[in-house]
Design a protein that fits this description.
The chain is mostly beta strands. The protein is built from no helices and 18 strands.
Length: 217
């Protein structure tokens, strides 16, 4: 296993360092992996929360192979970013920022799709059971999916019981307050129809598909 150090900082305009934000990272292999002891590492996500005291987060990850890598989803203070990274074997602790991108990783284009999450019209609480049919989109619901509720709070599905999705993890991320017509124009819900509805860097959720878009130059 290789120890990876995650360090995130918010810009404060005064110093080079900035303050340490709250949030979490979600790590998952891109495929099932047969290990040396013949056990199988399943492509299921696990969650690591950033320490409340602002210290670095240390996570141990299996070194990647030729045909798989780690998907890392950063969910920090209303900002979400997804990377697919190569983790080498190392006896030293490596900084997450220095990990190389997998060759099959795709980058977001201007005004393009950043990632996807699901949308629920009601309010989600811890351990809530919500019928998968009531999520948008409602197909292929699986453990590890994220979902934003009507308050803008982002939750993670941690289990499936019969036809219900079980929400067991509050990601600590909120997409911001709502603006006119019930839509938030800053990191919130409702895909913009033109650039006058937001500024570069704002993110918007398509309420029908759950796709998240970011405004860029």
């Amino acid at each position: 296993m290789t120890r990876i150090r995650f360090r995130f900082r918010e810009p404060d305009g005064l110093t080079d360092g900035g303050s340490s934000p709250r949030g979490l990272v979600v790590c998952s292999p891109t495929s099932r992996v047969v290990q040396k002891d013949e056990s199988i590492m399943l492509p299921l996500p696990f969650v690591a929360r950033l320490p409340d005291d602002g210290s670095d987060l240390l996570v141990s990850l299996q070194p990647t192979g030729r045909d798989w890598c780690w998907t890392i989803r950063e969910q920090v203070e209303g900002y979400t970013h997804v990377r697919r990274v190569i983790v080498p074997h190392s006896v030293q602790t490596l900084d997450y920022a220095t990990l190389g991108e997998a060759s099959w990783a795709s980058s977001a284009t201007s005004g393009g799709l950043v990632h996807s999450m699901r949308v629920y019209s009601g309010v989600i609480t811890s351990d809530a059971h919500v019928p998968a049919a009531e999520l948008r989109p409602s197909d292929n619901v699986t453990v590890g999916d994220t979902c934003v509720d009507s308050t803008g709070r982002v939750w993670m599905i941690t289990g499936l019981v019969d036809s219900d999705a079980v929400f067991g993890v509050d990601t600590g991320v909120t997409l911001g307050g709502k603006g006119e017509r019930g839509l938030s124009f800053r990191s919130g819900m409702g895909r913009p129809s033109d650039l006058t509805q937001g500024i570069v860097g704002d993110t918007y959720i398509d309420l029908e598909t759950g796709d998240v878009y970011q405004l860029r130059l």
